[in-house]
Design a protein that fits this description.
It is a single chain. By secondary structure, the protein is of the alpha+beta class. The chain is built from 11 helices and 13 strands. The chain has helices at residues 3-32, 38-45, 72-84, 98-103, 118-121, 150-153, 167-175, 190-195, 206-215, 241-256, 259-272, and strands at 47-52, 55-56, 60-62, 69-70, 87-92, 109-115, 125-126, 131-140, 159-162, 180-183, 201-205, 219-221, 229-237. The strands form 3 sheets. Strands 1, 5, 6, 7, 8, 11, 12 and 13 form an 8-stranded mixed β-sheet that branches. The protein is globular.
């Protein structure tokens, strides 16, 4: 047997050994994982678990009579489940517990008017943005001219109210160190407390301020054209690339189809006509 032929035989067996080892490694990894992605698990289980706070109009809140969940993100959650041909299961979360609940695998996606924040991005993936806007004050009508700047709110005699755990708390604590800060346990009763003069002002998202001034005629949204800060809202998910890709494409299609704008307008119309 000549030298060249022996060399070819040796290369042949080395190739077989390499392919065999590679194949065994791939099979081992695939067998170890029950699902390739969260998307596969959701489809297999037939259930989409949606985390939501139920305290933020127009995104997620409860009807007075039935206590059933309603809002833009509730409608969109049902649409997302329908696109997957699965059932939706709403899971109660809160702003202070949002990231802990995400890490504890309590839901597959959080949909509740969630603002994009880098400190949340460290623990999960955001979808593409849904809407954008800014932070503005809402106060009693007769104080509208008084609270047009950050400096005018950052005064010792001003009571700034906010709900804990979200961007409203972060904004208040960062910008109003001289004011009297009032942490309200939820987002629902804040506006009534301003009406009843238990607090003076809240700085919140434009869309919420606009709706609340329609619900509470004693209140006025300030600085609509010149918000204090920019934000974008999106959906928050565990760090799973396949699942994020699906949600992003679903959102992209719904945007192009005009569904998201229609849902927002319908929700605002219903809330402001009550």
């Amino acid at each position: 047997m000549n030298h060249n032929f022996k060399h070819l035989i040796r290369l042949f067996f080395i190739g077989i050994l390499f392919c065999s080892c590679s194949t065994q490694k791939i099979v081992h990894v695939d067998n170890k994982l029950p699902f390739n992605s969260l998307l596969d698990k959701i489809v297999s289980d037939g259930v989409l678990r949606v985390g939501t706070t139920g305290d933020y109009k127009p995104f997620s809140y409860r009807k007075k009579e039935s206590r059933a969940l309603q809002g833009m993100d509730i409608t969109m959650a049902n649409d997302l489940a329908n696109s997957l041909d699965v059932k939706v299961k709403f899971v109660r979360t809160s702003w202070p517990a949002l990231i802990d609940d995400l890490q504890d695998n309590k839901f597959d996606i959080a949909m509740s008017g969630i603002s994009i924040r880098l400190n949340r991005q460290k623990f999960g993936f955001y979808s593409i943005p849904i809407i954008e806007g800014g932070k503005i004050p809402i106060c009693r009508d007769n104080d509208a001219e008084r609270f047009k700047s950050l400096d005018s709110i950052n005064q010792k005699d001003v009571r700034v109210i906010f709900n804990p755990g979200g961007t409203n708390e972060e904004f208040a604590r960062s910008n109003f160190p001289n004011a009297t800060l009032i942490e309200n346990e939820d987002n629902i009763s804040i506006f009534r407390r301003i009406v009843e003069k238990e607090a003076d002002v809240m700085v919140t998202d434009q869309i919420e301020a606009l709706i609340q001034e329609k619900i509470h005629l004693e209140l006025e949204a300030v600085n609509l054209e010149k918000p204090f800060a920019f934000f974008e809202k999106a959906y928050l998910m565990p760090r799973d690339v396949a699942w994020k890709s699906y949600v992003d494409q679903w959102l992209n299609l719904r945007k192009k189809q005009g569904v998201i704008d229609a849902v927002i307008q319908e929700e605002i119309k219903e809330l402001t006509s009550q």
